[in-house]
Amino acid sequence: RLILAHHHILLDGWSVGRLMTDLFTLYAAGGDASGLPTVTPYRDYLAWLARQDRPSAEEAWRTVLAGVEEPTRLVPEGPEAAVAPDRLLVEVPAELSRALTETARRNDLTLNTVFQGAWAVVLGRLTGRDDVVFGGTVSGRPADIPGVENVIGLFINT
Fold first, then answer.
1. How far apart are CA 125 and CA 118, in angstroms?
2. 43-96 tens-digit pLDDT
3. What are phi and psi of 157, to 5 degrees?
4. Coil, strand, or helix at residue 87?
5. Are 111 and 100 in contact (CB under 8 A)?
6. Which alpha helices (DSSP H) does the chain contain, by range?
7. Amino acid 100: pLDDT
8. Cα atoms found within 13 Å of the Cα of residue 97, Cβ hemisphere only
9. Contact 145, 48 (CB under 8 A)
10. How far is CA 106 from CA 96, 109, 110, 121, in A?
């Protein structure tokens, strides 16, 4: 048996898949690491990160967010009531799934981008605003680092 536990500060979701692939490869090879691919070290990402122009990045975000006076807040109607955590499972019909995937493809978007656009529309309707701001988590793996897709570590950005 193998139990793998880690804090999210060490590995992002992409890395967990890569780590599991490497572990299974090692297990199948009886511990012989020669079959594992050579990977770019995480320190290359840290060096790339250190070279980024933070003041320019901050200024770019200030420009993009100019005019935003407050966060987009969803305020519940009526008094707050205690709600027990629960799970909601929604099955998307195959026809709708195909239509969404086709919409994304036709517009050169990822399916995630389509959903984020839909979420922005929902937020706008719920808040009565035509300019909404919300955060999202992105991979954060810079394409200009060769082999970054195989590096194990924390890359997510919000």
1. 11
2. 999 999 999 999 999 999 999 999 988 888 887 776 777 778 788 899 999 999
3. -140, 145
4. coil
5. yes
6. 13-28, 42-50, 54-64, 94-106, 111-127
7. 96
8. 5
9. yes
10. 15, 8, 10, 20
Tokens matching residue 3: 């139990």
For 136, how many CA atoms within 13 A lie in the half-sphere containing its CB? 11
Rounded-to-integer distance, Cα 143 and Cα 6, Å: 26
State both tokens at 145. Answer: 């680092």
Angle at 114 between CA 108 and CA 115, to 5 degrees: 155
- HSE of 70 in the Cβ direction (CA atoms, 13 Å)? 5
Residue 140 vs residues 37, 54, 110, 143: alpha-carbon distances, Å: 22, 15, 16, 9
Q: Which residue has 């998307």 as its token pair?
A: 92
